[in-house]
Amino acid sequence: MKFGPVPLAEAEGAILAHSERVASERLRKGAVLGADEIAALRAAGYHSVTVARLEAGDLHEDAAAQTLADALHAEAAGIARGHPFTGRVNLTAERPGVVCLDVGAINAANAVHPMITVATVPDHHQIRAGGMIATVKIIAYGVPGVAVEAAEEAARGAVRLATARYATVSLIVTDVPGGPGTKGAEAIAARVTGLGMEMAETVTCRHDETALAQAIRVAKSEIVLILTASATSDPFDTAPQALRRAGGQVERFGMPVDPGNLLFLGDIKGKPVIGLPGSARSPVLHGADWVLARVACGLPCGAAEIAAMGVGGLLKEIPTRPQPRRGPRG
User: Among 2, 108, 214, 242, which one is least packed by beta carbons within 10 Å?
Assistant: First the structure.
């Protein structure tokens, strides 16, 4: 691509590099200059103008962006591609879910040519319907077609959207005299519906192993969430033991995400069970969001995956915590 100032007499058919004021209107950058635009520039007193002109083998920014965006999602279900504009194409979610990325492939595409860029949300980011997943931006007005082909090949199928494979969730809340009761149940229900699932029931029982084990056994839904009146502070505390007594198993207690440290994950007869910390009563981003989203969408979420959540797992302070995480000296 050639770029720079040229006399008006040589500018027809080129791409206007910068927006210019003519008479009562403004010629927008990126416009292809025709005879009318040249005449308007001349009438406004311009003798030259800065333009970009594609050379043989170059692709226009919009065509390049569309080509790369098509390769990125490779018609993956649940992802919509927007129309190209000013060298940009956005990929958005058609339904709620979890974004799954081939990070290496995207890095490889971004390394092909500095004018070819792909920006995405983080891997395993939970997204709402209509949320932006990625944007492809071609920085220059045109790029070599061979570079676009290389980026296209590197990034093919690098973006997909995992959606909920379960339909219903049960929330079991344990209670003690003077305890929080069902406080926070609405925030938990919002997490469930935000993933496209239904909160089928909210059940309250006593905070003891026997009562909770029975509630777990008879839970109606495909996923069971447990919210206890008292913090679960040990792998053999009331809630994990109740799951074992019900015939289930605990796969992981504790996670390197804060808030969310006291979460536990298990199952009963193939049905996922997630023990929620009391801090999950707050609607702010929480380790429970990461685990629930992956479990709901059928993504790997066992002990190894939870152990790997520590980098980036320091989340914001929440006002409901009884103690700050900072000492008196900050």
Answer: 2
Q: Which of 283, 266, 284 has the alpha carbon at shortest distance from 275?
A: 266
pTM to 2 decimals?
0.89
Is 315 among the domain residues?
Answer: no
DSSP state of 278: G
Domain count, the chain: 3
Report yes or no: 213 and 238 within 8 Å, Cβ to Cβ.
no
Reported as a single tens digit per residue, the pLDDT across 55-85 is 999 999 999 999 999 999 998 999 999 999 9
Cis peptide before 283 (omega within 30 of 0): no
Angle at the Cα of 214 from the Cα atoms of 209 and 219, rounded to 5 degrees:
125
Q: Taking Cα atoms as reference points, which of 171, 212, 172 lies closest to residue 193?
A: 171
DSSP string of 113-134, one letter each residue: -TTEEEEEPPTT-EE-TT-EEE
The tens digit of pLDDT for each residue in 258-285 reads: 999 999 999 999 999 999 999 999 999 9
Strands 2-7 and 15-16: unpaired
